[in-house]
Amino acid sequence: MEIEREYGPAFTMMTANLAPGEQIKVEPGAMVAQSEGLDMKTGSSSGGGLGGIMKGLAKRVVGGESFFVNTYTAGPSGAWISMAPSAPGDIETFDLSPGQAFYMQGGSFMASTINVDISTKFQGMKSLFSGEGAFFLRAEAADVPGKVFYTSFGAMKEIKVTPDTPIKIDTGHVVAFTEGLDYNRTKIKGVKSFLFGGEGFTLDFHGSGSVWIQTRNLESMASQLIPFLPTRSQ
């Protein structure tokens, strides 16, 4: 699968060029344009059977993703599909080795190769009171290497974490992180800063791996827009 990126980092569109018979799973609404010779089928985002249905419901309810996923298959001459996130932002890819896990904040998943399974990972009880999502999405490739496509709101930056260089990140700016990292969810110390400082909870990463952050926070932007939205007259 050959990948092309355009208009990044704020308005990135990504095009996947598929070989004959090659497949890609795409989150509904992410497709921008496609060539002829590309067949699409819609199914559960976590496979068939009762287990797949329950996993799909978990992704929808707690992970912020769609219950369904569109699978595109290239015809005998190959095909291409262009994708973009719903909010202005960037797109990155991560190459998964068999059995390797990759974690994304809910809403960041856009597409993957056909062999990648997406499930949910609970962030812990503290996350239920933080105002942010309580679950991460967990991507894992079965048997053979896979590729996952994930998105941000605004530009994206990778930060390396080592045992000697832990990092503290506002929960609304975490996009994704690799296996090998542990994290703790903590509240900014001091009632004054928590209530009036515009900050609340952070994820404190430690271990060895990479974490990706986004330059904008969708929840913060929404809070800025709420006062300007029209209200229903009584």
Overall description:
The chain is mainly β and 234 residues long. The protein has one domain (2-224): Mitochondrial biogenesis AIM24 (Double-stranded beta-helix), CATH 3.60.160.10. The chain has 3 helices and 19 strands. The protein has helices at 49-62, 191-196, 218-225; strands spanning 2-6, 13-18, 23-26, 31-34, 38-44, 68-74, 79-83, 91-96, 101-105, 109-113, 116-122, 135-141, 146-151, 156-161, 167-170, 174-178, 181-187, 201-207, 209-214. The strands form 4 sheets. The chain has a 6-stranded antiparallel β-sheet with strand order 5-6-3-10-13-8. A 6-stranded antiparallel β-sheet has the order 11-12-9-16-19-14. A 4-stranded antiparallel β-sheet has the order 1-2-7-4, with no helix packed on it. The longest helix is centred in the first third of the chain and has 14 residues, at 49-62. The radius of gyration is 19 Å and the shape is globular. The model is unreliable at 49-54, 56-64, 124-133 and 191-198 (pLDDT under 50).
